[in-house]
Amino acid sequence: MSALNLDDFTDLIERPDGGVRRDAEAHRERRVVAPGSLGRLDELGEWLAAAQGVVPVRPLTRPRVVLFVGDHGVAELGVSARPASSATQLVQDVLEGGRPVSVLARRLDVPVRIVDMALDCPPDTFPADVSRHRVRRGSGRIDVEDALTAEEAERAFRAGVAVADEEADSGTDLVVLGDVSVGGTTAAGVLVAALCGTDASVVTGRGGQAIDDLAWMRKCAAIRDALRRARPVLGEQLQLLATVGGADLAAMTGFLLQCAVRKVPVVLDGVVASACALVGQRIAFRAPDWWLAGQRSGEPGQAKALDRMALEPLLDQGLTVGEGAGALLALPLIQAAAALAAELPERADTPAAKTEAPSAAEEPVES
After folding, report:
1. 49 shares its domain with 196
2. What are the DSSP E strand ranges found in the chain?
3. What radius of gyration do the chain's Cα atoms show?
4. Which residues are catalytic?
5. Model-level pTM?
6. Residue 355: per-residue pLDDT
């Protein structure tokens, strides 16, 4: 395995096409509706046009939900409403259609891809297409030990890059990114606190199933202890993911960056995806231009991360369930923005829309 140079992403990632965005803005000014009357939908349509490099914007025909999944050793401390090592059952429920993301994906006709990076179960529990990128069984307890070895962190990151390439090569035109984990929001909180320079209490939320006050205090203490371990490696993003992240978080970070390289837009779900995006921003400052925040979950760590990246959530429904469900709710809004940008006609009084009627002198004379 050749050495992984994260600095390469800075050179590989370009911003969405600024010239195309200006063309999209000019197109908006000529449409039959008054400029600004469609609110944020105008902005979304122009962002999509720049990402696609074409005006008018193309409809989104091949969106995809991608979920990176894993168990986190820190869940042993009782920081989650779910028991440690129970993400396997959640994944099974998603596959069987019994989770919110499953219902929404069926309703919206969007395929769901699950990528097992570190579930605490035998490797043959799920089909090969789910587990073939798996790095290890569970991640370490980040308050007292590293989540991953350096080699495992690199393997996980590369796996995320590979999944992004697979999606881009298959024609996926927008990704809804989420996670299924137990203990993942604790690891995410550590990453956000470390990168934003804040205390544990500022980023500690109640998780996917609202935990009680005692569990919240245990979670805050775990983030505080892990934060002490994170600070010495802040300058090395892959080492940071190995120290206090996890295989699923390392893979999501690689996935996000490679999607930006391949010019595939991504909609972020909750605090875990947002924390990985924040790490990605540290690696390549232009990368967030390819990402949207799907919804505001109410997790303080998510709010802190999105504010640092200047990403404003599209929806505010307070979904904390994770698994990409909140971001998936934003998909119809994005599709509507694309349809309006592409299909609304221009005003009759604009130069591009005028058709010159022949003058009397130019009219044909009958013989």
Report:
1. no
2. 63-71, 112-118, 174-182, 266-268, 291-293
3. 23
4. 323
5. 0.91
6. 45
